[in-house]
Amino acid sequence: MEITNQIIGKNGLIFAFLLVGGIMLLAKFFSKKITNNRIPAVAIAILFGLGLAFFGEKKGLADIPLFSGLAILGGSMFRDFSVVATAMGADLNKIKQAGLAGVISLFVGVTISFIVGVIIALNMGYSDPESLATIGAGACTYIVGPITGTALGVSSNVIAISVATGVVKTIITTILTPLIAKLIKLDNPHSAVVFGGLIGTTSGVVAGLAATDIKLVPYGALTATFYTGLGCLLCPSIFYLLLKMVI
Amino acid sequence: MKIYGVALLSACFLIGKLTGRFLGQLLNINSDVGGVGFAMFLLMTSSLYLRKKGWWSEESDSGIWFWSAIYIPIIVAMAASLNVKAAMTGGALALLAGLCATIAGLLLVPIISKIGNHSKKNQDGDN
Questions:
Q1: Three-state DSSP class for A153?
Q2: Interface ipTM above 0.95
Q3: What is the pTM of this model?
């Protein structure tokens, strides 16, 4: 047993390939036999992944040494690398056509998330502009939250809430997107560009689109990648100052 | 050679990330601004250029397609290594704020999608 652990420990990334392959196979079977192909296998596999994450803490299942390779395979390096690779299947003309809508969706997306976050935090007892701005920034993405919180010097408790808000957004986007894609007409590159700009959490956007229609992934990823940067730019500066004036 | 494809992808990835990081520094925020987006544009334009020049082969393409296809398993691994517990222990505030912000964004998709979307008009011939 110890030798097995040693081998897996030294080859964590390879073990992660095997593990994910197994999850995908199981999800395919589940999708076919139990849901009659109604729920795509990719969506089920992602749900399985989220479920497995409950066995760990900060890094999900990867907190358990045996499964630590999952954090490498699912880390930002491989994720961004493969997202860039999906650009090969994207049509440059369609992106040009959606350009203006994409830029507008970015600004609207960051603004609306911030406002929604602030309103809910206000209703739940927070009243100082620093904490409100941090939670509003967390409603953008789980990176914008702590960056804003650190810049404004709020307590680590508030920063933790802002990170949690961002993670909730990622998970909800992943689960909800394939379910309501038809309702919001998310079925073409143009709306995928807008979707990426409005939601912005790169991991949620790409996971949600993958579960909806894999062909749409590059379009959503393209705008989503600008969202966190824009959020980091606006939340601790203009948005915070505006908030301070209002309150 | 497949490795040419992977090498081009790597070059675009690194240049894109660098650009995003520099842009972040320029704007005085300690974060990457659109690095992946720049990399994607670079890959699209450079592969198009190389193809026109005839310096690109189908086999080089397959080196990139592999990484594009491995993308789903990576997302599954990412899902399994998310801090799901924190999302639950962040309390009602985190749950509510995350949920409402997502739904607000989703509902705006069909509205903002109308901007610049003339594809249907073009098909009808009344440009």
A1: coil
A2: no
A3: 0.76
Query: Which two structure tokens, joined as six digits, stand for B105?
Result: 């964004």
**Mutate: best of B81, B89, B118, partner A, most A CBs <10 A:** B81
Burial of A4 (0-12, 13-18, 19+ CB in 10 A): exposed
CA A47 to CA A93: how far, in whole Å? 34
- Tokens 């409005």: give the residue: A198
User: Which pLDDT band, with edges at 50, 70 and 90, does A17 fall under?
Assistant: very high
From CA B58, how far away is CA B48, in angstroms rounded?
13
User: Which residue from B71, B49, B1, B83 is spatially nearest to A215, judged by alpha carbons?
Assistant: B71
C-beta contacts of A146-155 below 8 A and 24+ residues apart: A147/A232, A147/A235, A147/A236, A147/B29, A147/B30, A147/B31, A148/A232, A148/A235, A148/A236, A148/A240, A151/A236, A152/A236, A152/A240, A154/A130, A155/A131
Determine the residue among B45, B48, B74, B100 to mutate to test chain A binding: the one whose Cβ has the most chain A Cβ atoms within 10 Å: B74
Give the pLDDT band of residue B75 (cuts 50, 70, 90): confident
- Cβ–Cβ gap A217/B24 under 8 Å: no
